[in-house]
Amino acid sequence: MEEKIKARIMDAGKIRRCLYRMATEIIERNRNLKNLVIVGIRTRGIYVGKRIAQIIKEMEGVEVPVGVLDITAYRDDISAMETGHMVKKTRIDFPPAKKDVLLVDDVLFTGRTIRAAMEGLFKMGRPQTVQLLILIDRGHRELPIRADYVGKVLPTSRREIVQVHLREVDDADEVLITEPKKLSK
């Protein structure tokens, strides 16, 4: 089913400004940046996380390690047999135990992705703290999860689709709201 663009919410400049604002908030709230690590949720959370790490390095001169978390094995909407066939692409080169983990994703919707990510993260060790950074919070939570750092709150209907495009994956930086096109009879 094709989608119809309903609204362009953010362009590259707005995304960049949101990331700089959130990086500043992270620096203000985390006194010991040397204990901070970033874990990006596959796919676009990885690139949001890498950009945040780069901004922190520019601002504070501290290199924050970035890891990649694939939540496929921890999802509650796929059976264990189905996940067994999926390639696991988690790459975290640091132990998250006793670290201040900044978990990063592009869109927060029901909260189920974040629940799965925390389960996967805790299987690797118990972090000192877990903070959540989201580029877009679109509401409609099914679980009691709230982000610590939010780029933009974007009230949507359940029918609408929020698409985050990042240049590393999609060759453009933008946030769109789309709707499925109605099928003609």
Quickly count the helices. Answer: 5
Sequence of strands across the biggest β-sheet? 3-2-4-5-6
What is the H/E order? EHEHEHEHEEEHE
Oligomeric state of the chains in view: single chain
Tell me the radius of gyration. Answer: 17 Å
Largest sheet: 5 strands, parallel
What is the architecture at the second tier of CATH? 3-Layer(aba) Sandwich
> How many extended strands?
8
Give the low-confidence spans: none
User: Roughly what fraction of the amino acids lie in strands?
Assistant: 25-35%
Shape by Cα distribution: globular
Q: Would you give the CATH topology?
A: Rossmann fold
CATH class: Alpha Beta
Mean pLDDT metric? 93
Helicity range of the residues? 25-40%
